[in-house]
Amino acid sequence: MMYDVVVIGGGAAGVQVATAVSKAGLKCALVCFGRSISGADPNVQGVDLILGDKAVEARYEGTGVVSVTTANGIRLQAADFVLATGKFFGEGLVADMDSVREPLFDSDVKYEQDRSKWFDADFMAPQAFLEFGVQTDAKGHLLKGGSPLSNVYAVGLVVAGVNAAVPEYECDTVINELICRKRI
Amino acid sequence: MKKEYDVIIVGGGITGAGTARDCAMRGLSTLLIERGDIATGATGRNHGLLHSGARYAVKDAESAEECIRENKILRRIASNCVEDTGGLFITLPEDEPAGYGLDYQSTFVSACHKAGIDAVKISPEKARRMEPSVNPSLIGAVVVPDGSVDPFRLCSANVLDARLHGADVLLYTELKDFLRKDGAICGVRVFDRSTGTESEYHAKVVVNAAGIWSGPIAQMAGVNIGMYPAKGALLVFGHRVNNVVINRCRKSADGDILVPGDAVTVIGTTSTRVPFEECDHMEVTPEEVQLLLREGCALCPSLATTRILRAYAGVRPLVASDSDPTGRSISRGIVCLDHETRDSLKGFVSITGGKLMTYRLMAEQATDAVCSKLGVKARCETAHRPLAGSEKHRAFWDKPTLGQKAAEGRHGTGASDMSADTRLVCECEHVTMAEIEYAVDKLGVRNLEDLRRRTRIGMGTCQGAFCIWKAAQALAEVLKARGVEADPNRLAAEFDNERWKGMRPVGWGDTLREMEFKQRVVKNGQPFSYAKK
Asked: Which candidate, B403, B414, B492, places its Cα nearest to that of B447?
């Protein structure tokens, strides 16, 4: 099935985007690792929910993505994709001893190369690692290899600069962009 | 509190605690002083291995014999603190070309028997059945009577036992200077860190049992002991991966012991000389973590995908004797110094070197030295009488709750003194309000770190992420009811920083996920974000 938008991640940001574009009449699917979505607004009428599953692979064509495939083998084709997989807790970002990566699109991640700067000794002080994340352009396009993917966006905690402990982000830029693209 | 004692002991680690017990049992009026809480030095920063002594059998037969003797004694007198896990010494395929193949294994087994250690060679297949997590490629295995010991519990039991025999104990009390008379040490001047006041106590003999800090304390007394701070780093894994202690059957090297303890597993250790100044502020380095992980995975491959809870480091209180740069060849023998004969300083004894396993023997030697100075003829009974909590007893309850069972496991006979408040505070380790009250009333607890050491609160798989607020409020409530000022926010903050310190050196993979979770729960109130509209 061909969707207008596939949202990857069922946290607050993913749910907000899915709800908004669905209300605007776009055909939307949301893939969520957990067995239920979180977030304050449970009104996801019209959104195809794929729960308990994880997008693990992406297929590319030109400067964009044509489909993502889940761990259970479901292939989701869409005009646009939204990465809303969160930070380390939900494995939107994965860290090993030397590096941080974003496992689905292997996109550009902004993080501190010097490990000694990741943490502050005072638990209550700001912690640098809580602001690591993927890089986007001004319109919210995900950057990969320095260039924006034409039809992949990132919102929420997965984005660099959004602090996991004091999260402040907006999804409206991406939501409006998605709705406009459909109208065109 | 008296003004004059027979003996004052400086240092609340296992050596000081054991010495206080022995002195008190022999009828000496005893005071133990400790600048922080009990077991905060090397006592609280080791493997928790109840050595069979097999590790020393080939190269240091005397240490090995000492070890197995004390191993048997501790199983008797500290049954509440010891777990009989058994141990394996395994030989891996790569050990053969390195000269530590099955020939070495035979040498090892003979050396164990000579030292009185019951070592039994078994087939690799039997070893895999005995301990399923062991590296399946092993080519040889020997079973030895290793066990695991909770060093906090052991130290606490000695302190409690000493108090039951009449000793006074002052925690958070720092030694400021010695009192002298006619060129002899005759007491101490101390600073109480909670009240901010100084006091003086007199004694006929002062015992220096301060671990690595024995060096500067001896200097304060005007004598010199060459201490050799050898740092050891260890990792704690998120659950009990193995049930049997796993060792490598080769010359002692880094990271070749994997010890199960309660609900977790510990891998260690390393040995690096560090400057003395570092002893109060140790950090585990990335190199140490990598080395421990590598060596740990050789013993037990599943460690590679096991969450690491935390990393920590301790300093061995070794006495310098030769120029080996790593400190491993320094015999871990007991060093008991009577400064009257050595340095013409009366009234002062130092007891250092040794290891956790042989603390009772160290205490015996120190107490013998004290008694000889005082002309006291009482004999040492510490090997024969069980520690407080380890006495044989009948069941206290007909149908114990999980919390009661856990409390009895931790405190033995002490559990029968606890109240019936079964409200659960820590779910990972089943710590109830009753146990918290007991720990404050009977075990000298003043903050969450003290409480952690005695009840394991926050030492389980969640490292306090779920229980810390409850625990802080509960402890503050108990302290305030006893007239002690307590701020739950400060209690929690101290605890959080200590846990954080242990997680930072292993901050990747699942540990990093947990670190993010903790940050979000504490700073955001809940771990899930709610989008702004």
From this structure: B492
Structure-token match 């989701």, residue found: A76
User: pLDDT at position B398, please?
Assistant: 85
Q: Is B129 exposed, middle or buried (0-12, 13-18, 19+ CB in 10 A)?
A: exposed
Of the candidates A12, A115, A122, the beta carbon closest to that of B528 is on A12
List the single residue in B with minimal CA-CA distance to A89.
Answer: B513
pLDDT tens, residue by residue, B104-128: 999 999 999 999 999 999 999 999 9
First to last CA, chain B: 64
Provide ipTM, 2 decimals. Answer: 0.95
CA distances B305 to A71, B136, B164, B259, B266, Å, are 20, 16, 46, 17, 15
Stated length of chain A: 184
Contact with chain A for residue B3, Cβ under 8 A: no
Question: Prior bond to B269 cis, omega within 30?
Answer: yes
Q: CA-CA distance, B32 to A86, in Å (whole number)? A: 53
Question: Residue B11 corresponds to which tokens in the numbers above?
Answer: 């240092």
Residues of chain A found within 8 Å of residue B529, distances taken between Cβ atoms: 11-13, 156-157, 164, 167
- Which residue of chain A is at minimal alpha-carbon distance from B283? A121
A145 CB-side CA count, 13 A = 5
**What pLDDT, on a 0 to 100 scale, did the predictor assign at position B323?**
46
Look at A13 and B501 and tell me if their CB atoms are within 8 Å.
Answer: no
Q: Coil, strand or helix: which one is A183?
A: helix
- Please answer yes or no on whether B512 and A122 come within 8 Å at the CB atom: no
Which stretches in chain B have pLDDT values below 50?
322-323, 327, 529-533
